[in-house]
Amino acid sequence: MNNYNFFDRKSLISFSTNVFKYFKVPEKDAVLASQILDYSDIRGIDSHGVARLHSYFDMLKLGRINPKPIIKIIREKKSIATVDGDNGLGLVVGPKAHQIAMNKAKNYGSGFISVSNTNHFGSAGYYSERSLKNDQISWSMTNSTKLVAPIRGKERMLGTNPIAIAFPGYKEPPIVIDLATSAAAYGKIEIANRKNTKIPKGWSINKSGDNTTNPMDMIEDGSLLPIGSFEEIGGHKGYCLASMVDILCCVLSKANWGPFAPPFALQQEIPKTKVGKGIGHFFGAMEIDGFIDVEEFKKEIDQWIKVFRNTKPINTNKKVLIPGDPERSSMKFRLIKGIPLINPVIKDLYNISEKTGIEPPAGIEPAT
Q1: 128 with 140: CB under 8 angstroms?
Q2: Which uninterrupted H or E stretch holds 67?
Q3: In this structure, what are the phi and psi dihedrals at residue 67, rounded to the nearest 5 degrees?
Q4: Which of 124, 200, 212, 300 has most Cβ atoms within 10 angstroms of its Cβ?
Q5: Residue-wise pLDDT tens digits, 116-148
Q6: Chosen CATH of 72-183+232-337 out of 3.30.1370.60, 1.10.540.10, 3.40.50.300, 3.40.50.1380
């Protein structure tokens, strides 16, 4: 972490909140949005934390995001609904739509919500973890700007389209599964480019369709690959998962699917054609006690975790991981040390401070 400086969480949350409020986002919504960014920062999901703040700043400044959306259900049956996010911050629309899913699950045993006319909603895992306190299992999905090539293709057609789901433990920590359906998240490409480092083979192709380890080859008209990378080694599986997310989030809600999804960052291409409104999300929630006694389920999850932790490791110096372990490890470290930020992100935050007059987070200076 030699390229990082560490910053106080509370200072970063306060700064983010004030930036959202600067654009007339209501205080309660601004705090919520900042907490979702913090969720990513403390768990080591750097591509979805405060490093994204300048993109939100740019979009709000240009009026591409509605700071005060009227979020409403536009079609509904007992346990399912379609929600229109009124082009609001995904960090605000997402939690409110997800709450509808949790409420429906409480009333009917399950709840399913497809959302249109929204924007980037942060880390998908935030929503799934949020349901654990209600003794619910929930998953979340979203589409995003085209970045991923389909199998046998060499142009961007799908977003990184993440999926998350979480299961509560009894004494053990929860199992939290949060993954992009691409071989890597675009944010990781951005971070590699900012750090001037190579990316692993199988993450992306250049504009000619050739495998590349240079992040700029992907950024400049290249494409990410689906989970599994190339067809010969299982890339069709990631492609199918990404397609499923695209359909549940967008075709179902009338959001813009596939290559028609609008961009989140200014440097990304704006599609010339629309097939719906904004991007889309999909949330599902289920009451555990509709299947099994809650305590019994949690204890069985504990047993599941113990069995898998006792798997014989390949390397005796590295224990077998449970989904969510890397994020918990980062969280333990960062709650003590602070949030590590690379210089380009630090400069972005100071740039926002200069343009808004908002005091920068503690320790961020122009010479940094």
Answers
A1: yes
A2: none
A3: -70, -20
A4: 124
A5: 999 999 999 999 999 999 999 999 999 999 999
A6: 3.30.1370.60
